[in-house]
Amino acid sequence: MAQTQTPTLSGADPSVGATITRAALVGTHSGGNRRERAEIELDELEELARTLGAEVADRRLIQLREPHPATYLRTGTVETMDAALGELGRPAVLVNDSLTPRQQRNLQAAWRVPVLDRTEVILAIFARRARTAEGRIQVEMAQLEHLLPRLAGGWRHLERQRGGVGLRGGPGETQIEVDRRLVGQRLKRLRVRLRELERRRTTQRKARLDVPLATCALVGYTNAGKSTLLNRLTNSEVLADDLLFATLDPTSRLLSLPSSRRVILTDTVGFIQNLPTELVQAFAATLEEVRAARMLAVVVDGSHPDAPRQLTTVLETLHTMEAEQPALLVVSKADLVPPAELPHVVACLRDVAEVEPIVISSVTGDGLRAFRAAIDELAAQVVIETRANRPVVEEDLEAVLEEEEPPDVSRAAG
Predict the structure, then answer these.
(1) What is the model's pTM?
(2) What is the domain extent for residue 122?
(3) What is the 3-state secondary structure (H, E, C) of 90-105?
(4) I need a surface site. Which of 167, 228, 261, 392 has the fewest CB within 10 A?
């Protein structure tokens, strides 16, 4: 009696990312001097896998002149990878590129394992890390938007026909239409709920701007040290792990400065190269915190080998967001940079940003006094605090910083 083969789970299924414990990584390069750049990007994918909670069983960097329209990789490479996955016990595969629905479906059929592209890995991490109702809604919307074009033939378990009189058509046609309608209905409910939360956030932001305090957003590449810096400056206990996207939801804390002036310091979600379009759109409301801040502190990890490129990504993203406020450049993790190399790192970042950086270490405390003084000086320029409005500050601070947790998304969004 023939055994029924268990269908391969689709990497496009939002629930699959949470189940991955072992993964093989695949990156590509087009040859020449692009290999070194591709190695750094594959290192980043490995960090994403670690953040996802997956053990990396294998990593391969493959030369690829042009993606194959059906399988992304060439036939011989697909076969070689299939044999390697068999020896490794069939871990899931994470591809450091964007795959079309057809390419993803064919690779999963050939390798008989879930295959996730870069976008799906980031979506899975966001789904695990989002804490507030707004964040969870935004992530789910991004997942569903990404999933929609992959429903048609994307999941083998969807290719079935519902029983009943008068049902005709090819295998799976009716069920796929049902799934599309259900996804569309869910997206509609989520959009309604998100608009409600956006109105609430707008009201809270207006109250914050009405109070005569400077607001400073900590922005930068993911894992640049923003949360650790916020904790050190404000004696807070915001989650600060050595992981990509440890922080997704904005957190605001009050910072007292040497002049007795105070600012509201906000930790924001980190940027990343090739951030999926779905996430840029989904997190527009959260990123509004960056646009609304009266000044910025751009934090860059000085110990990272790709620090200049990461800073370029952050500056380009801020330009795209039309965030043109006065800004400070902060080079963090100076304690991890060899002293002989630090001047070169600082010079490179100065050339990228065309501004003199402030070098700090949140671990040792080096440079924090200079950073406070720089924020103090900039805050005096963006907000003129007078004797008349100081009582308003005292009266409204607690209300402005209070974060009311919205109702649970599962109940609120239906």
Answers:
(1) 0.73
(2) 17-129
(3) CCEEEECCCCCHHHHH
(4) 167
Instruction: Convert the pLDDT of each residue in 203-254 to its tens digit.
Output: 766 665 566 678 899 999 888 889 899 999 988 776 555 555 655 667 888 8
> In CATH, what number is assigned to the domain containing residue 74?
3.40.50.11060
Query: Of the candidates 336, 200, 232, 220, which has an alpha carbon nearest to the alpha carbon of residue 269?
Result: 220
∠ CA 122-123-129, nearest 5°, is 90
Order of strands, sheet of 358-359, starting from the edge strand that comes earlier in the sequence: 251-256, 262-267, 214-220, 295-301, 327-332, 358-359
Regarding whether 225 and 98 lie in a shared domain, the answer is no
DSSP letters for 308-375: HHHHHHHHHHHHHTT--S-EEEEEE-GGGS-TTTHHHHHHHHHHHHTS--EE--TTT-TTHHHHHHHH
> Is residue 163 situated within a structural domain?
no
236 and 366 fall within a common domain: yes
Q: Is residue 287 part of a domain?
A: yes
The DSSP secondary-structure symbol of 257 reads -
Which position has the higher pLDDT, 15 or 53? 53
Identify whether residues 106 and 243 lie together within a single domain.
no
Q: How many domains does the chain have?
A: 2
SS3 (DSSP) at 237 = coil
